[in-house]
Specification:
With about 375 residues, the protein is of the alpha/beta class. It is built from 14 helices and 8 strands. α9 links the parallel β2 (about 200-205) and β3. α3 (about 70-80) packs across α14 and α4 (about 80-95) packs antiparallel against α5. The radius of gyration is 21 Å and the shape is elongated. The chain starts with a helix and ends with a helix. The model is unreliable at about 5-70 (pLDDT under 50). The structure holds guanosine-5'-triphosphate (GTP) and magnesium ion. Magnesium ion (MG) binds near residues 182, 183, 212 and 257.
Length: about 375
């Protein structure tokens, strides 16, 4: 609570509210007091897939020092379903009599059913076996912390928080399959970035789905930021307009929503690649971040979505949503092993504050006790 108030008093004045529809505000905001935020580090993001040997990412402790919102309890609450599914069988397994082939078979089955995927499961079991041999472990109970640590190490490779560089505006493009949570994530992300003293503008680039712009406008109103939309039906024209508007108003960050599309719809994948090119033409080097939003319920299909969107667009970061509603939390391990890509945030609910910076240790602690 104290952290929350601290953030509010260091906030910039927000741009004037523009549009029509009144929307329910989740919380009344106290009057903002103070002026200029500290200058932001002018650091550019790493792009594309990560070098998994690079351990330069900031750990959770560093993030906390920097004042990112980061509430372990909410992650634990969000991952309750995954934990329910994992904790009982793992506890039973770790209280078994000895470490033998059937122990490993059982461990493999538990990991696979939690969507850890074949590759990450094989890797984790191999690492556990190595630890058993190296440390002469005979008690299954000792393997629990070893498994947890190995999982944390694996996930640390994708623990890369977003870094906003000064690009006036810094452009974020939100992409993904239908219904994964792109628009909702924009609402939460806008709140998060505003809390970090950035001014934000949103582009209603989903001109396909009826009511998509209205849905986004509600999030714009909740956050008190401008939403740029058009009647034209051309998403490229909307993002072009939005980036120019952000430039003119000196807005720090422009976030573009896009229509949901399946990786199998080639013409729609081509269309989104075109939108990306238009952004670059309008504002050289943009988008600076292409965020793929993945619904955790998708399970192993997430890997396929990531591969195809990455080929078409060069995905720079992921948001894994709906972790509060699924037992398939292991999919993050599958991504880390098979196609390591920075996981910027996780979604743990539908509310404006239900976005968390991804932290490997907190995540694994949430997954099983
Ligand atoms: N429980 C839960 N629900 C979520 C989360 N993120 C989004 N949702 C819900 O998922 C549904 C779809 O969210 P949208 O934000 O409209 O998804 P979208 O990707 O923009 O959908 P399209 O624009 O149709 O492709 C909504 O009911 C959201 O409230 C989350 O982290 N947890
Ligand atoms: Mg949407």
């Amino acid at each position: 609570m104290f952290e929350f108030l601290k953030k509010l008093v260091t906030k910039k004045p927000k741009p004037k509210k523009v549009v029509a529809k009144p929307a329910p505000k989740p919380k009344p905001k106290p009057k903002k007091v103070v002026a200029k935020p500290a200058p932001k580090p002018n650091k550019v993001l790493e792009n594309d897939l990560i070098n998994i040997n690079d351990t330069s990412s900031e750990d959770g402790a560093t993030q906390k020092k920097k004042g990112f919102f980061n509430f372990t309890e909410k992650i634990k609450e969000g991952l309750a379903k995954t934990r329910e599914k994992l904790t009982t069988p793992l506890s039973e397994l770790f209280s078994s009599q000895k470490i033998d082939e059937s122990f490993y078979d059982e461990l493999e089955m538990i990991l696979l059913t939690s969507d850890v995927g074949i590759s990450a499961t094989d890797y984790l079991i191999q690492r556990v076996k190595e630890a058993v041999a190296k440390k002469n472990i005979v008690e299954p109970q000792e393997l629990k912390s070893i498994l947890k640590n190995e999982l944390v190490e694996l996930l640390k490779a994708v623990e890369r928080p977003i870094k906003i560089s000064e690009n006036s505006p810094y452009v974020i493009m939100m992409v993904g399959v239908n219904g994964t949570g792109k628009t909702t994530t924009i609402g939460k992300l806008t709140k998060h970035l505003s809390d970090q003293n950035h001014s934000v503008l949103i582009a209603a680039g989903d001109t396909f789905r009826a009511a998509a712009a209205e849905q986004l406008q509600v999030w714009g109103d909740r956050n008190n930021v401008t939403v740029i939309s058009q009647e034209t039906g051309d998403p490229s024209a909307v993002v072009f307009d939005a980036i120019n508007s952000a430039k003119a108003k000196n807005i720090d960050i422009a976030i573009a929503d896009t229509a949901g599309r399946l990786p199998t719809q080639k013409h729609l994948i081509d269309e989104i690649a075109k939108i990306k090119k238009v952004m670059d033409k309008c504002h050289g080097g943009s988008p600076h971040e292409v965020l793929l939003v993945i619904d955790a319920n998708t399970g192993q299909n997430a890997i396929n979505q990531l591969k195809i969107f990455n080929e078409a667009l060069g995905i720079t970061g992921l948001v894994i949503t709906k972790l509060d509603g699924t037992a398939k939390g292991g999919v993050i391990a599958a991504i880390a092993k098979e196609i390591p890509t920075p996981i910027r945030f996780i979604g743990v609910g539908e509310g404006i504050d239900d976005l968390r910076i991804f932290n490997a240790k907190e995540y694994v602690d949430g997954m099983f006790t």
